[in-house]
Design brief:
heterodimer, A: about 270 residues, alpha/beta, Rossmann fold, six-stranded mixed beta sheet, four-stranded antiparallel beta sheet, 9 helices, 10 strands, about 30% helix, globular, disordered C terminus, B: about 290 residues, mainly alpha, MetI-like fold, 12 helices, about 75% helix
Amino acid sequence: MLPAYRRDAAVKESKIRIDGLKFYYKKRMVLKEINGELEEGAITTIVGPSGVGKTTLLMVLNRLYESMPDCRVKGRVEMKLNGRYVDIHKLPVTLLRKQIGMVFQVPNPLPMSIYKNVAFPLKLANVKDKIIIEERIQEALIDAFLWDEVKDRLNRSALELSGGQQQRLCIARAMIMRPEVLLLDEPTSSLDMEAALKITRLLVDLKKRCTLVVVSHYADLTRRISDHVLTLKDGYLSTNSKMMAATEKNNPTEDIEYGYAKNQGAWNCQKLSK
Amino acid sequence: MNRFIQYSITFFAWISGIILVASLTLLLAFLIYKGIGSLNLFLIFGETKPMDVLLMRKEVLDGLFPAIVGTILLITASIVWAIPIGVASGIYLAEYCNLRWKPFFNFMLDLLAGVPSILVGLFGFSLSIFLHRHLSEHIYPCFLISSMALACLVLPYIIRTTEQALVNLPFSVKTTGLALGASRLQNILFILIPYNLSRIISGIILAIGRCAEDTAVIMLTGVVAMAGIPHSLLAKYEALPFYIFYISSDYNSQEELMKGFGACIILLAVCAVFFTLANILKRKAEIRFATRL
């Protein structure tokens, strides 16, 4: 349990607690003192200027930093697993990464078929039963709003998909292990507006199944669908309540769609909400 | 940059390419022109009937057949030694090696790559003498020693290409599997190696070429002019490059020299078969990687 003065009153039930986290790259201290809680079943967005270590923070959460040379971490990160808080550094790393999915800035499908891509984590987990595999693939693709588009061509290469579809494929691939937390590193920044919007709407839907942590730059869509916005600056993390206005509405994506329709002029609300 | 320099660099590049292709064509044309006349079944099988030879009923005494079989077996054996050790070392250097030790290993590897083949042969020869004295009276320079020495000779090619292929992968590819919960070994087996298979196989093709042509190593470690097809790993054997070497250094008649040219063409053909096989394997593996589980 964190001391009271460090607790964030806005967070009801925390999924991940970060306490006194410091991150060193070689001798340089990238993250100086990170404290915070990420609410369960909510979207938490981390914003901040580029190069400040937002991606690094995500990589600490699933311990991906360990595959980079010269990196060191101090402090505690705890994740709630089956009702108990567990230090992530004490979990086996492969188990942790199956609980915490990650989606990168640039879609990174493997050069294999769509089927193989989505099934890949199951292969890693040694699941052999074909029926289970196909069930889970369908479930994950439906979760990622991709099933209708790809159900007839699961054997085609994933590289034939468009950028937005590839990104949703990566989300499906991360979701197939039914992770409790999903980390997304600027998931929409390499996509065009329409694809980005689709992903944004998808994230709101995914909130029902897992906790989402999104890194985003200031002007991004995702900030407006988040329940909490944290700002990372100079190696410190702080809550930023001013940016939370959009979350008070009942249907945040509607607001976004309306906003885009108004701003872009050319955007057609009917088409988008299809 | 100065326009003149730009043009001259382009010109130089073109000329180099043309010279390279032209000399290769010339070489092949010369070989074929000289060797095609002597290239017939008699050259390969001698007086024996081809069917008898292929069914292992009779041995060929005056043809190239034993040398062809010897070369094919030798290449296969050396590659079988070299691939697992080479690929594993490459993976170790790229993925597991401690940063403090890496320069040392790299230096040793460069040293190994720079060792002249005659020294490798000498090493194999000394090894066989050592084993003869201390292990068993039956060990002489033989097929086994030859194939191991050749494997040493070609190891650096395979290690380097594997290592470079793995090191040069973008960070995003390296972390894709890890982020999905792959262990380090799974990441290597399921992602890094399939991604790099074509490059690793290019290294193997280089190694095959080197195994096929090398004469110095095998000369010191067990090849002889007349041995027939080797019956065991500890037997002497014949090989095409050695045949070419001795026929060209002491031929008695013009006809014998022509046989040497014929042997050159056969050696090229053997290499071509190996390269094609490697490429087919590469294609197959890529397709398997790309399609359904």
